[in-house]
Input
Amino acid sequence: MIILGVILLVIGFLADISILWTIGLLLVVIGAILWILGTTGHAVAGRRHYW
Output
């Protein structure tokens, strides 16, 4: 998600398309939040493992 956000940021910046810039920024922020939550051990979106 973070990589896709960075790609959209670059394309939006080079092509001067503001909606791609906005979507890319949102994807980077959401991806970073989910990554931080995942590394701290919190369950993201209520995942359960039935092993």
